[in-house]
Amino acid sequence: MDEERIENLEKLSEILSYTFSDITLLDTSLTHSSYANENPDPARQDNERLEFLGDAVLQLCMSAILIKKFPNYAEGQLSKVRAAMVNEQPLAGLARKYRIGDFMLLGWGEEKSGGRNKDSILGDAVEAIIGAIYLDGGHESSLRFISTTFQSLVDEWVESPIYLDYKSLLQEASQGRFKLVPQYQITGAFGPDHDKTFEIEASIGDIVSTTGTGKNKKEAEQDAAQKALQKLEEI
To answer: For residue 71, what are the contacts with CB-CB under 8 A and spacing of at least 6?
Structure first.
């Protein structure tokens, strides 16, 4: 690597708040296969192997983070939250936040087609960087990095869940904790035919009972299920 590349990588390290003992790992994590193919060099690899490792590390670390953050979530709920946070779109969003695209090595074709802003390339690069940090500093370093980097996504989930099928979430929580299936019952319908408001009760045995409203039955059920989930978290 020339001095300019090393300086750029050190700049990215500062942005990421992680100092590499082996800066070549960061360089590899930012090397797209198109660049490696167009610039053959036995000493240079693309980032696909690091991406493979980083994906596994991210899944493990995020699982540990979510189990601590949401102690009352059932396995199915945790899986949905994790899937929402580690898929291509949020990963690409983090890449843009940390300007990772600016530091990537791309082939001529990818450069011309806007590869620095493609979700797939950016998301893969984030996973590759995580793989590089794991090899450089081990599990604790990668866990600290992921905890810090993904904190904003976890906070957003707490404020406004990305996955809004509350009926499914309530059923998983209810079956997981109480071996019971939630029941839904219409308790009222108000207003003229063209603008009705439905009222539906969601109940889990004698444990939880909540009432939701909506402009149709499905919306009312979702509202009741969301309120029931909130009550379960308080229990």
So the answer is: none
Q: How far apart are CA 113 and CA 66, in angstroms?
A: 37
Note whether 18 and 145 are within 8 A (CB). yes
Q: Which CATH architecture has domain 166-234?
A: 2-Layer Sandwich (3.30)
Q: Are domains 3-159 and 166-234 of this chain identical in fold?
A: no
Query: Helices 166-178 and 75-86, interaxial angle, to 10°?
Result: 140
Which amino acids are annotated catalytic? 55, 127
Residues forming beta bridges with residue 183, ordered by sequence position: 203
Both tokens of residue 228? Answer: 């029931």
Count other C-beta atoms under 10 Å from residue 147's C-beta.
15
Predicted confidence band of residue 160 (pLDDT cuts 50, 70, 90)? low
Closest CA to 82 of 150, 164, 166: 150
The pTM of this model reads: 0.69
What is the rounded distance in angstroms from the CA atom of residue 114 to the CA atom of residue 93? 16
CATH number of 3-159: 1.10.1520.10
**What is the maximum span of the chain, computed from C-alpha positions, in angstroms?**
75
Q: What are the domain boundaries of the chain?
A: 3-159, 166-234
